[in-house]
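Practice set, problem 2.
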Amino acid sequence: MPNMEKTIVVRLEKTHKTNLGMHVDGLSLAVCLVEGRGLVAEWNAAFPSCAVEPGDRVVSVNGAQHPELVMEQLAAESVLQLVVAKQGALAAALAPQAQYSVQLRREESDTFGLEVNPDTAEVVQVLDDGRAAVWNAWHPFRALAVGDRIVEINGVHVGRHRLLETELDVDLVVLRGSGAAFGTFGVSFARVDEKLGFGLNKAMEVERMEGGGVAQLWNAANPINKLRLGDRILQANRKTGAAAMLGEMKSAGAKAGGAALGLVVARAERRFDAENQRFFSLKECQAEWPKDSQKRWGAMSSVQPEAAGPAGAAGATGSTFILELRHEGQGPGFDLDARKIAKVHDGGVLAAWNRQRPAQAAMVGDQVLEVNGFAGQKALEELKKSKTVRLTLLRQNAMSTFGVTFQRQAKEKLGFKTNEQLELARVEAEGLVPAWNAGNRLHQLHLGDRILQVGEVASAAEIFQRLQKAPELELVLARCPRRLDASGAVLTFRECQAAFGADAAARWAAMGPVPEAPAPPPKAPAPKEPAQFLRNTGNDDRPMLANESFYRSLADVRPSPGGGLRRGNAPALPAPPAPPAEAKPRSSFSCPCCNHLFHVFVEDGAYHTQPVSGALAGVRLQPQRDWVFKAFGRVFGATLSKRGKEDLVIDPGSLVLQSLKDAGAVAKWNQQQPAAAVVVGDLVLEVNSKPAHQALQELQAPEPDLQLLLARPLGGATFAVEPQVGKKGLDWQLSQNLVLITSPASDASADSDKAPELPWPVQGDKVVQVNQCVGLESMRKEIEKSKQLTIIVMRRR
């Protein structure tokens, strides 16, 4: 079987066409989609043996390897030389597809090595050493299996099955049958110089795993494609008959020095056990719980083949992510054991990365797949010698990471207890965490969440000390999976156990995914409103961008001469299947490939996408996968006059407002236009009618006036109120971040003749400006000392 890291070189020239016809993920550089037309499609037709396919990964373009440089080269250069890795770890993670394609070529005197039932078009046999067996060896994730049914040959309905006898080149569309209903994958042993480490039954199914063999080494290094009990061997090298396969396995170990052995395997169904946070096949479940295996199996979450594509895989087999570390010879800041992170060093480079990027933090147990593009032993060597390393990590559990910062006053309680593993074991009624949860219901801390770091400290003893004494706590946490119960409660499995006891596993399996926000009550159709956005600050929604069906609906969207977007003259595209749970109607997102903004909408029960029009037409963002937007806020404009140099600071990479200056141009604008107040966290879309990333230099220019177009990522409408201040000061109950813990009584309650001011703050709203103060500390002081307050409040939805 060939090396799974096989690479190809693709040379393209943008002469008469500028459309590559290929979507590349801006972070992982995985090929998400190859369109039917474009330069890549032409290359694939001319060089089918070196075709670029979804699941491949772009290693470099014109020598550039960094994702941002790769995306820049693809967009700007006319001559492109791409190095592409064929079906590596990312393709291995793809969930099984109900339908797949196969391309076979033969000589006139040869056959395809495939026997098909003429009545049902089902594959009856794959012959030893035939063309189909060769295809399987090279494409183990799309291997032909007995029971699969051919539905098309060269675009012709399967009724003309004789095309297999007359044509020399065939392009097959194949429907998965029961023989490999949960997909196929490959196992490659470079040298079998000891025992295999597994036993087979007469049906060629794995019935036992033995310690110390090459299979154990494979499983340790390839957690995505572990060989498990119940998996069935379809092919050994290029042999497909049972006797021939057993002979290949036996002879590989018998040869002096060992020999290579490549297996094609039909995957047994895997189900996820929430209590153990592990996947099991049925036979593994029976071995683990021999007395109540059927009950246990029924309570596990099923991973169905219909969850095709990367989105389905992320939940089924783990997720990959990339981080970059730079050090001056002190090492990357972590220890490895069996290529998994075993320890994060206090104050090390990795701890610093986690603190700065908590949503992309690495944790103990994450597996190192690649270092600077190298896998296996070369990856470990690269980790030791290079001062700049680009790590591709695999996380098999369902946890994501996030950050929370608390400012603690003297003797103020944290409001939670942890166990020895630093997992939240109890959340109390009072303290920092309950206050945080009250004001941040979309990012609450739950039982089971685990503290990974405090600042740049990752060791348990130091973390416990800092939790007791430190006045400022920068926490990096692992988010335990949540689900939505039928009662409407959002629960972790530990909370589910506390609530339902012995029935927790069954109850957990019946729960659904957690939506971003509660669904609004049914009401009459309203007029269309401008696009509304919410930035995704973690990695929860990324499967939406990884879902191939999402890009398929965008395949024929093109920039128009006027800078907007239009659809070509292609026939109407079919509606994608049911969207992922996190993709809501009236949400929007930025495609990480073409960087344009698109709307998501539902019409007549079908799921559609369309390019953004109106004020945002043609807006392009930098190629960062972080930019995923959800319906939650609004888009608005602001004009800043007599601007000082430090009145506002915008992060050049994310285009987000990082800080504002007290009594500056923004604070004055907010006082004049509280309904269009600008706050920290807002996303800048345009500067003086230019896309923001192209006009950042204008923020540094001496010209003081700015016209900004902004999106409200972190909340909804803003409004101003002038509350009465009593002798003891303002009586609002506010958290440390100035979020309202309870809804304050309106001034009308004190004076029945005074009409209540509308709108009026409610629980969960956030104070964003007090008089002309916009900084957190300055706003607190202004509330304490001033007897006359104009407060701008942002409604949190």
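Problem 2, part (b): a different protein.
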Amino acid sequence: MLGSKFFKLQKPIFAMVFSRKAQGALEYLLIIGVAILIVVIVIVALSGVVGDTKDKNSVSDYDSQFDKLQDLQKKPDGSGSNDSIAEIISFKVDGTNGLIQEQNIFVILPYGTNLDNLPVEIDAIGVVNPNDSEIDFVLNSKKIFTVTSIDNKIQKDYSVVINYSPPVDEDPPVVNLISPTYDEKIYEENFIFEFSVNDNSSINNCKLLLNSDEYYTWNNISSGTYQKVVNLLGYEGTNMWGVICVDSRNNSSELVNGSFEVIFNNDSAQVVFLSIGGYGGNIQNDSVQITLPGGTSLQDLPFNVVVENGTISPNNSRMSFSLGVPKNFTLISDDYTQQRNFSVTVNYLPGGVLGDYTIISSCQDLQNIDKKLNGKYKLMSDIDCAGFNFKPIGGNTGFSGYFNGNGFKIKNLSINNRNFNLSCVGLFGILKGEVRNLKVVGGNMAGYYSSSGGATLGGIAGRQDAGSLIINSSFDGVLQSKWNTGGIAGESSGTILNSYSSGHFYSGYYASKSSWLSIGGIVGHQKSGGVVKNCYSSAKVESTAGASNYTQQAAGLIGRSYGLIEDSYSYGQVLGPSASTSVYVLRGLVAADYNNNFYGTVVDSYWDKTTSGRNTSAGGVGLTTSEMKIASNFSDWNNEVWEVGNNNYPKLINICGDGYCNSLIDENCSTCPGDCGNCSLPYTIYNLYSCWDIMSISDFTGMYILMNDVNCASEGLENFEPIGSYNNEFKGFFYGNGYSINNLKIDSSTSFVGLFGALKGALISGVVLKDVEIKGENLVGGIAGSADSSSTIQYSLVTGKINSNGVIAGGLTGTGGEIINCYSDVKIN
């Protein structure tokens, strides 16, 4: 062999070279004629397969002929190369008295034929012993062919014919398994099996085998990749699979095997349903097992729990679960005299629901958003940021991504801008993207900037830029700054929809600026192009001390507006120090400047003149508390967004927006939406998230559910006002839901003092008051100052201190009521 590109053929070879000594001119011419005739016949028979047999004694002639043959081997379009041209390197014939003759012979085969794979036979006419003849071939190279004649006197032409036959491919098909990979775990019921096959000829069939059984056969196919969807029911556990193929020459591939494991064992979570009826009703526990396909992590999935066989609206019953952790929620039966069975259907989205979202499951995850400010993020559970030194997301750069709170809460978010010295402070410093379905609960943010200045401060965003969106979101907590401050955004040029705020918001002056300072329940300063629609605020808005060269505007909804306010309202207090009207502008819904100029637009929006303490506003309509609870006053509002009824403020129907929320009833919704037939439940349900929410209770016949632990001290509520009074008792239902109210402080000089001033026909259940400090004149108690005989307090607890200047005080109540399974550890003076 001459190298890796060469192959040597010694057998089979039949070579005959003939030479005769001419005896006479006639015989000599006859021989030459015969030889020429043979050459012609061979050339015609091979149709171009045989090379030129003329003498080519010069190198230039040889090169010319070789190039010409190369051209013959190109594709019809002129492309390609001479990969099917080979030339004989050497051919030696030993004789006794012959002549040495140089002759160049080319071997040409049809385009695309690979000589490496072809056997070659050589035919020659003469007396040469075939055993003395050998030929080597190489592709794409030029070599000289030498023939030694037995006649050393006369040069002769010699012909060499190369006959070839198609190769016999003995190689079997090659099979490669693609999916499932070896030992892959499969959780789907239907799975795509995939393999590839490669062969030089056509393939008769390929068989897919599962555990040695034939599952499917492909017939009459060619090389390529093939798939089959396999239903794996009945294949739980470890299995083998393989593919075997047979080609058209009956060559069979090896059986290529792989293994896979099918897992249909279900993850599950147990949900405990506590059905609480009115007093005299029955408490019922139903355990419901919820399952998902194996391998699905429950903590990664949102759930929509649909409650049937009752009067509860499916859209108002929602839960979230963590794997293996029981959760409680409350079902209100329409039958107070009998136990009822409730069926629960869990609709879930498969794992793909996460899509390209980054999942946020901790406060550190939330902070890590700073690493990619244009990403997509989703909350999959409540997260608690207590004790975390949180820096506003995006700082002064801004967040341009997408954040879906998924109906979950960020709790106890604390921000102290003295640590960061940013000009815009909030969960997001500057919002340029979209935030939806988010609740920030128990937030405490201080927007102080440098030594004496203040940052723009908002519960969701410090500054909301044009083109950005906040929808179906809320903030509850305390905000303190010396510049523009709002419950949702400090400044906004963007759009805020279907959102609300509660808590206590302070803003004071920045002495080095001669400008405007604005504070509002939703937005402090709404700029041109900004939109606030379908929003409300119950927050206490307070403008603190200022200077004569500094105008402070405070209002229940928007401090200062150059944009649009539509279908919105406020009912929180609006407070400010005694000062000249040229310095302080305090209004109900929205404030004008000190010259009473107003540049915004207000459509169908209202404020409560009674609770706000403000009779005027730059826009909107002022109503008394009783008028705010008359449904006909809001007849132009969208009933798909608002639930408007008598005896209560309008409430947003679905604050989370996308149908996957984590609370039983996400916003204050009636138990009888639409036409529910005979409905005996007299309550409207309200959810409570803060001490301020609790103190803001105004519908004394409603049902209230505490949705998380609250801390009145950390919320800045230093003197709680009791719910209800001697002449206006609380007659509804209050459910503590297993959460606690901490550090409740009341300092009153009147009687009927407690969490509730007075109860009449009320049910108080599961209320936990820790470390109370309550002071009153007479009839003082932790739960209630007074309760009549038709009121019930059950499964409740009080710890702390109670002081009374009179003679009637108690750990739970000052007097009266039916007390069941309760406990108190209170020091009474």
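Answer key, part (b): The chain has five domains: 7-164, 174-262, 276-352, 356-634, 670-828. The chain has a mean pLDDT of 70.
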